[in-house]
Design brief:
Blueprint: E1 13-14, E2 18-24, E3 30-40, E4 44-49, E5 58-66, E6 70-86, E7 89-96
Antiparallel strand pairs: 1-3, 2-3, 2-5, 3-4, 4-7, 5-6, 6-7
C-alpha cells in the first residue's frame, strides 16, 4: 500500500471507489452490502453503510479500482468511529488490520 505522509495522523486522500463490505451485524447475522469510499489513508478507510455493526467489529472490504489501493484490494479492518447518518446510512471509519 502506498505511503500517504509522515504525520502522526495519517493523511486522508478523498476517494469514491466502489466497495463491498461484509462481516457480522449487531444481531450476529452475516451481512454484505455495497457502498462507496469517502476517503482512505495509510492506516484506514471511511465510508457510509446501512447495516448496524458494533464498535470494534472486524469487517472485510473488497475495493474495486482504487487509485490509492490498486485495481482490486481485499482488506480487513476494525470499526473505530461512527459519525452522523445521511440518507439512511451512517458514516463509518475503520482501521486496517
Amino acid at each position: 500500500m502506498p505511503r500517504f505522509g509522515g504525520s502522526q495522523r495519517a493523511d486522508r486522500e478523498p476517494e469514491s471507489s466502489a466497495l463491498v463490505i461484509s462481516g457480522i451485524d449487531v444481531t450476529g447475522a452475516k451481512f454484505q452490502e455495497e457502498s462507496q469510499m469517502i476517503d482512505v489513508s495509510e492506516t484506514g478507510i471511511a465510508f457510509y453503510m446501512k447495516t448496524s455493526v458494533w464498535m470494534d467489529a472486524h469487517i472485510n472490504l473488497e475495493v474495486f479500482s482504487s487509485p490509492s489501493l490498486g485495481p482490486k484490494s481485499l482488506l480487513k479492518a476494525k470499526i473505530v468511529r461512527f459519525g452522523t447518518e445521511s440518507s439512511g446510512k451512517r458514516f463509518v471509519a475503520a482501521r486496517f488490520d
